[in-house]
Design brief:
By secondary structure, this protein is α+β, with helices and mostly antiparallel strands. 48% of the residues lie in helices and 16% in strands. It is built from five helices and seven strands. α3 crosses α4, α3 runs antiparallel to α5 and α4 crosses α5.
Length: 248
């Protein structure tokens, strides 16, 4: 057998190395054990946070779908009957305003509006037309202009005829109706002069006569009341539709 001899210093070095290896293995095992415990503890805390009430927003609260995109809210449609009532009321008011506009607006702009009841100026101004009179200086009226003037003392009539001659020195007009064969018998003094005809609307005079009559005013008030009631009914029907949708 072969004998192996080892010195005392070498033996001590080998023993020290062995103890170092054993100590290192123990520290490695301890570190591994701590890491496993820390991982398990963190996992349990994550589970608690995920499962806590109110910890995660639900799809209903966040308003988002499964893909994370904002969800679409369903819009409530209007009641068809309410829409019909509202539209009818609006059309009634619009028709009434349009009918009154030709009579109201000229007055605000300084024009006078009158209805033609005779055919003396046909075909230029048909019977039933609405004529608008603009103020003017009598000296500035020219031959061929159509003027409006009072019919005479106590008559109250307003006449629209064409000027044949303007006698500035005498302060009077010589007039004639287009449909008449002769000139007017009496000259028109400047004191009866009302103004010059600016423009006319055929057949609008008849509508104006109806609206300004007693029956026409009553009908206009009833139309306004009906339009308001239709709007109120429309709002009531819409409110009822909203309550039905909320109950669902």
């Amino acid at each position: 057998m072969t004998e192996y001899s080892i010195s005392r210093d070498a033996f001590r070095s080998v023993c020290a190395d062995a103890r170092g290896i054993e100590h290192g293995s123990a520290e490695y095992a301890a570190d591994k054990d701590r890491a496993e415990k820390t991982g398990k503890h963190g996992s349990r805390q994550g589970e608690k946070r995920a499962g806590a009430p109110g910890g995660a927003m639900t799809e209903e609260k966040s308003g988002r779908n499964a893909a994370g995109m904002p969800g679409k809210s369903r819009k409530r449609g209007r009641n068809p009957l309410a829409v019909m009532c509202s539209l009818t009321g609006t059309l009634v008011l619009a028709a009434l305003v349009l009918a009154c506009l030709p009579m109201v607006m000229p007055g605000l702009l300084g024009f006078g509006a009158y209805t033609v009841v005779s055919g003396s100026m046909e075909p230029a101004i048909p019977t039933g037309s609405l004529v608008y009179i603009a103020g003017a200086e009598p000296e500035g009226i020219k031959t061929g202009d159509i003027i409006a003037f009072h019919g005479g003392e106590g008559s109250g009539a307003v006449i629209t005829h064409r000027v044949v001659e303007n006698r500035v020195v005498m302060g009077e007009f010589v007039t004639k109706g287009d449909a008449n064969s002769a000139q007017d018998m009496k000259p028109v003094p400047y004191s009866d002069f009302m103004g010059r005809v600016a423009w006319t609307i055929p057949e609008m005079g008849r509508a104006a006569a109806v609206l300004t009559s007693r029956e026409g005013k009553i009908a206009a008030v009833c139309a306004v009341a009906a339009a308001v009631l239709l709007q109120v009914l429309s709002a009531f029907l819409d409110r009822g539709r909203g309550g039905t949708d909320r109950d669902r």
